[in-house]
Design brief:
The protein has 8 helices and 14 strands. Helix 3 runs antiparallel to helix 8 and helix 5 (about 245-255) packs across helix 8 (about 325-335). A hairpin with an 8-residue loop joins strand 4 and strand 5. The longest helix is centred in the middle third of the chain and has 22 residues, at about 190-210. Helix content is about 25%, strand content about 25%. By secondary structure, it is an alpha+beta fold. The protein has helices at about 95-100, 150-165, 190-210, 240, 245-255, 260-265, 300-305, 325-335; strands at about 5-10, 20-25, 40, 55-65, 75-80, 110-120, 125, 170-175, 180-190, 215, 235, 290, 300, 310-315. The strands form 2 sheets. Strands 6, 7, 8, 9, 10, 11, 12, 13 and 14 form a 9-stranded mixed beta sheet that branches. A 5-stranded mixed beta sheet has the order 2-1-5-4-3, with helices on one face. Bound molecules: adenosine-5'-diphosphate and manganese (II) ion (MN) (3 copies). The site of one manganese (II) ion has 2 residues, from loops.
Length: about 325
């Protein structure tokens, strides 16, 4: 009996890393990540090593069903390590794993809203070959109807694949710009949400191949009066979710306000093009938090305010952020 294991990892490209993967044929069915062997790859082809000393190690950290190949085949998320097994400099997950262990008792939960744009060549899907759609933004968000929606087949396929894989995808919606969409993953712990978000990103890119559609995670794919793409992070700790949690949430917001640069650094590249103060964002030069305020850096949802406990929404992260870095920044700032 043979099983195909797709080993997935994050490359060394800067400032925005990409996904890589290759297939390993195994002789038996795998039921836990501990059964998987480490593997290697040519780091000189991914900006992770020199040609003269090119081997990098793949250390399996999370597995799920491969919903594309089906059967007993699996997808394997990996950390990249040096030949001696220590974390590679591009490995942002290992730092998050340390923080997760240190602050385990906080029981941090994350729900990430991944926005993205489907592209047909240089134009978003559904746009004319040149120029702009006949109608400006307005009708497209959460819309229905062929004049309002582009790419739904692929988006639905992606949702089904995520569910079949066993990912904790919590919803999808059409976004404000035609051809722009969102899915949400979570709420889950920091490592789980991040591993699953990377796998969900991989699945979207993978079926984009079948559809001949490119997935663009740039935070401002179209300049001008068109919404950018973010990755809002909904975040809570156990004390925030319990009675009286609102005061813990307010304290966390105050701490976040003391660490603006650290967070912007962890929230993705080219984000200044998106955080302009327009299009449901707060300017990158400001920091504000508020109840139900979608023009703030941090929104405290209405339910959380009314219940006196719940979670906060950091609206600053860009669509191209690395969830390992973003979750680490949130835990580090608010739990220390
Ligand atoms: P929005 O109204 O901003 O579009 P969404 O419904 O797209 O919000 O996303 C909200 C996300 O927050 C979901 O992924 C949901 O699972 C997550 N979430 C809900 N409760 C919590 C919580 N207590 N802590 C962290 N995340 C949460
Ligand atoms: Mn949303
Ligand atoms: Mn959205
Ligand atoms: Mn949101």
């Amino acid at each position: 009996m043979k099983v195909m294991a797709e080993y997935i990892w994050i490359d060394g490209y800067q400032p925005t890393a990409g996904l890589r993967s290759k297939t390993k044929i195994l002789d038996k069915k795998i039921t836990s990540v501990a059964e998987l062997p480490t593997w290697g790859f040519d780091g000189s082809s991914t900006l992770q090593a020199d040609g003269t000393d090119s081997d990098c190690m793949l250390k399996p950290v999370w597995i799920c069903k491969d919903p594309i190949r089906g059967g007993d085949n699996i997808l394997v998320m990996n950390e990249v390590c040096n030949p001696d097994g220590s974390p590679h400099s591009s490995n942002t997950r290992s730092h998050l794993a340390d923080l997760d262990k240190k602050f385990k008792s906080e029981e941090a939960w994350f729900g990430i809203e991944q926005e993205y744009t489907l592209m047909d060549g240089t134009q978003p899907l559904g746009w004319p070959d040149e120029g702009y759609p006949e109608r400006p933004q307005g009708p497209y968000y959460c819309s229905v109807g062929s004049e309002n929606v582009a790419g739904r087949d692929m988006v639905e396929d992606h949702m089904h694949l995520c569910l079949e894989a066993g990912l904790e995808i919590s919803g999808i919606n059409a976004e404000v710009m035609l051809g722009q969409w969102e899915y949400q993953v979570g709420p889950l712990g920091p490592l789980e949400v991040s591993d699953q978000l990377w796998i969900a990103r991989w699945l979207l890119e993978r079926i984009g191949e079948d559809y001949g559609v490119r997935v663009d995670l740039h935070p401002k794919p179209i300049k001008g009066d068109w919404n950018g793409s973010g990755a809002h992070i909904n975040y809570s700790t156990k004390p925030m979710r319990e009675p009286g949690g609102l005061s813990v949430i307010n304290e966390a917001c105050e701490k976040l306000g003391q660490n603006i640069e650290k967070h912007i650094e962890a929230y993705g590249a080219d984000n200044e093009q998106r955080l302009t103060g327009k299009h449901e964002t707060c300017s990158i030069k400001e920091f504000r938090y508020g109840v139900s305020d979608r023009g703030a850096s941090i929104r405290i949802p209405m339910d959380t305010h009314n219940d006196g406990c719940g979670y906060l929404e950091d609206r600053r992260p860009a669509s191209n952020m690395d969830p390992y870095k973003a979750c680490a920044a949130l835990i580090d700032t608010t739990c220390s």
